[in-house]
Amino acid sequence: MNNIVIIGCGIIGATLAYELSLIEGLKITVIDKQTPAQEATGAALGVLMGIISHKVKGKAWRMRQTSIQRYETLIPELEAITKRKIPFNRQGILMLLPSPEVTTDDLAFWEKLRETRQNQGWELNILDKSQLGKMCPQVDMTGREYIGAIHSPQDRQLDPTAFTLALVEAAKHNGVDFRFGVSALGMKSTSNQQNSSARELGTSNQQNSSARELGTSNQQNSSARELESSNQQNSSARELETSNQQNSIARELGTSNQQNSSARELETSNQQNSSARELETTSGVITADTFIICAGLGSSPLTEQLNQKVDIRPVLGQAIHLRLSHPLGKTKFQPAITCNDTYIVPRRPNVYPSTDYWVGATVEFTQENGEVVADKQLLETTLQSAIATCPELAKAQIVDTWSGLRPRPEGRPAPVIEKLPGYDNVILASAHYRNGVLLAPATAEMVKGMVLEG
């Protein structure tokens, strides 16, 4: 049986746990220092901008399409197991096009994207000003000028916390062992035969030299001395004098029977093909065949202990929960509305009253001193932007405000989904930045492939 340890139980870790629990022969353990759906997951608005995104090809588009497709089957699947409804808004996303921010060139882009999506089997609708006013009377058409709007009826919005808790319950039903209140303290690794051979060749700055020496006769004795113990040096040197015996030496390195291949592989990191051996936690040591790190900002310290630090930095987001005495606009058409990166998200009546809305979210980077502090003025600016879009929100009661830290990779695109460089059994699935909820199913699909490949 293949033992899997997942570190982190936000929406990524919980989705991984459930999807992997559907595979026979896996023993899965999930640890988290907190209860599920904290940090970035608990602060997210859950807007799934897949079809309406500007991505049209490559990995970025494939992941979005995979996730949108899987959500349509995953939500009813989880509801059947847990016997509980998950707030899932199927009325799409409405992106307003304000003037003068949106130009005729922008409209041409949306026309082209609509055609592309149609060819891909998806729907995008471009609404003019008149259509927008009829569909969403809550949008103020006098205080701000709009060219129109984009309606993406197949995009979705869900409650990230409710969804994550349902994943945990369903995964438990399938035998996954969840250990909450358990912190990961560190990881230890062991090297395989190749690293052992590399160490016999000398320090890392000598490995490349040794590999190159394999191909030349005047350096064979030096290579032989590094490859063999002292009582075998002369014999190894003689063996290296023929090309067939050089290949034998390369095979002893555990790589290839070809010297050039051996040399190339030795010129990589001296940690190539290492394996993580155990995870030290506050409740003891856990061993596993595969470790999956999806701990958000907590991923960096773990990778650093394996000498492969992945730089992930926090970006703070604030949001606000509002309550009105009546629903905005038409009660039977309540899409998530976005304008100038401000979101107005209706809450589903089976969890909150149908008059409740989430508004957010700010994007706040670290200060010069490295700290991330919530700026109340930025949240107020976001609220006023929402009120400018839907003036009735000015009458709303503030139920709650909150903030969370999004994990953003430094110097590379989000997310980071890969085998940790130098390790054959450590998978990193983290740093999704603002798209953790959207990309959770696609991330699970990618990681599942890595686990099955071994």
Automatic annotation (TrEMBL):
Q: What are the alphabetically sorted keywords of the record?
A: Oxidoreductase
One Gene Ontology cellular component: cytoplasm
TM region positions: none
One term of GO molecular function: oxidoreductase activity
Query: Region Disordered: which residues?
Result: 189-281
**What region holds the FAD dependent oxidoreductase domain?**
4-190, 250-447
* A Pfam family of this chain: DAO
Q: What is this protein called?
A: FAD dependent oxidoreductase
Q: What is the species of this protein?
A: Calothrix parasitica NIES-267
* Top-level taxonomy: Bacteria, Bacillati, Cyanobacteriota, Cyanophyceae, Nostocales
